[in-house]
Description:
Layout: E1 6-9, E2 16-22, E3 27-32, E4 37-41, E5 48-52, E6 57-62, E7 68-72, E8 75-79, E9 85-90, E10 96-103, E11 109-115, E12 123-128, E13 134-141, E14 144-149, E15 155-160, E16 165-172, E17 175-184, E18 191-197, E19 203-208, E20 212-216, E21 222-227, E22 233-239, E23 245-250, E24 265-268
Antiparallel strand pairs: 1-24, 2-3, 3-4, 4-5, 6-7, 7-8, 8-9, 10-11, 11-12, 12-13, 14-15, 15-16, 16-17, 18-19, 19-20, 20-21, 22-23, 23-24
Amino acid sequence: MSAAYEVAVRAEATLGEGPTWDAAAGRLIWIDILGSRIHTYDPVSGRRTTRTTEQHVGAVKPRAGGGLVLNLRDGVGLLDPDDTFRWLRHEPVPGRRANDAAVAPDGSLWAGTMRYDEAPGGGTLSRITGGGTAEVVLDDVAVSNGTGWSPDGRLMYYIDSPTRRVDVFDFEDGRVLGRRPLVEIEDGAGFPDGLTVDADGCVWVALWDGAAVRRYTPGGELDRVIELPTPRVTACAFGGPDLTDLYVTTARVGLSAPHPSAGSLLVVRGAGKGLAQPAFAG
């Protein structure tokens, strides 16, 4: 089953990523990783903003006290409501950059990294608390990507894209246990990239070079496909006041003849029902 999409924001993002609904501000936040830009979009007023960062930015999430947390090339930074920037964790590694990140039910940031050359084992997934303490949870990652939690917070889903899998862990007291595959993406269907979990516990997966978003049941069964016109589909998230619209980011990088929608923010109205996302506790 497919569904009609609309272009929410016409753009030419090199590597559009990380759609996140900011409920407190009533806006969608999304980024262009390689363009070093943070975008916001208010679907009610149509207002859009763009902010340039000094480094490649892998993810941006709202903070509980206002402002934003940024997963940047050289670490994790905080942007205060008055636009003051400061580092929470500054730990540059030559040849490595930030990638996708997500906020856990306890308010911690699960921040991924990868090498620019995508070398196996060059990336990590770390848990960072609001106070700035950090723990490397996974240290043998190639391209750390989608991360999300089940509605009851007892399961964590995770993607290391070159594995072609969506893995699931048991999640207890901020720790992950019992890693096992939930879904394996078949050859020719693209690579799993970003993900989001809906109110039914189903996992929506964006497919890089797959021109689609897929929804899988909690048991790993494919039950819906949303086909899109551009191959490099990067991430998805529910947004809007009632969390029923699925926003999808896309990329132009590496495409010799990109579709006009490549790099734009897309939306599928009434696609499902999302979960309210926690803000970072820092």
